[in-house]
Amino acid sequence: MEPANNCLLLLLSFSLLFFFIPAANCSLDSFLYGGCSPLKYTPDSQYESNLNSLLTSLVNSATYSPYNKYAIMGPTPHDVVYGLYQCRADLAMPDCATCVARAVTHLGPLCSQTCGGAVQLEGCFVKYDNASFIGVEDKTVVMKKCGPSDGYTADQMGRRDAVLAGLNGAGGAYRVGGSEDVQGVAQCVGDLSNGQCQDCLTEAIRRLKAECGGAVFGDMFLSKCYARYSTSGAHAYTRSNDHGSSHSDSEKTFAIIIGLLAGVALLIIFLTFVRRIFGGNGK
C-alpha cells in the first residue's frame, strides 16, 4: 500500500512540475518598470479580497483576450478596485497569459499591501488602483531609456525619423514600422479612445525624438502609451519574423502539457484500480 501511495505522490508532483514550466520566449517576461501607490490597505480587509479577485480575473481573461478591464465593487467606495491588463498585440494568447501571470507575481512583492500598483514587462502591462483610471488619458512619463549614440549615422537618423513619423500617422492602438535596419513600435492601452490614443502617441514620439536624439535605440513609456525604436538589431521589439512559429511553439507546449497531465491522470486511475484489487485480495 505504501509504495502505491508514494508512486501517486511522485506522479502528482511530476504533473505539477510540468504544469508550471515557464513558457518559451522568456524575454517577454523581462521587467521594464513598476510603481506603487503610497496608500496602504488593511490586511484581510474587503479591499484585499476584492484585489485578489481582480488579479485572478485579469490572469484568467488573458488566456483569451489581449486586453481587458475590470471593476470589483464593495460595500463602501473605499473597497472598490479597478484594474486592467494590456498585452502586446503581436503575442500569441498563451504568451499573453503567461506574461500577465508573471506581471501579477511581480506586483505582490513590489506593491505589498498598496492600494495601487502597475508593472510593465516586455510583453504586457498590468495596473490596479482604488481610484478609477479607466478611460482617463495620462501622458506622464513613467520610463525613458536611450541607448548610446556611438556609430549612429545621419542616414539611420533619417530612417529613424521616417519610421517614427509613420508610426505617428498610422491608425490603431498598436503600430509597427521599419526601414532597412530601423524598427519602430508603438501601442496604447486599450481603454483609450482613438483620439486619446493618437494624442498620447504623438506626445510619446515627440519626447522620444527630442530626448533620445541620435541614440541607437530609444524607449518612451507614458502612463497610457509607449513608443520605441531600434537600429541595427539593438533591440527586437516585434516578432514579425517568428510570429507564426511563436503560435506553433506555444500551441505545441500547451498540447504537450495537456497530454502529459492526461497520461498522469490515467496512470493514477490505473494504480488506484490495482491497489484496490490487491487490497481486496489481501482481506
TrEMBL record:
Membrane topology, from the record: Single-pass type I membrane protein
Gene Ontology CC entries for this record: plasma membrane; plasmodesma
Primary localization class, coarse: other
Keywords of the record: Cell junction, Cell membrane, Disulfide bond, Host-virus interaction, Membrane, Repeat, Signal, Transmembrane, Transmembrane helix, Transport
Domain Gnk2-homologous, first and last residues per copy: 29-133, 134-234
TM stretches of this protein: 254-274
Subcellular location per the Swiss-Prot or TrEMBL entry: Cell junction, Plasmodesma; Cell membrane
A Pfam family recorded for this sequence: Stress-antifung
Span of the signal peptide: 1-26
Similarity comment text for this entry: Belongs to the cysteine-rich repeat secretory protein family. Plasmodesmata-located proteins (PDLD) subfamily.
Protein name per the record: Gnk2-homologous domain-containing protein
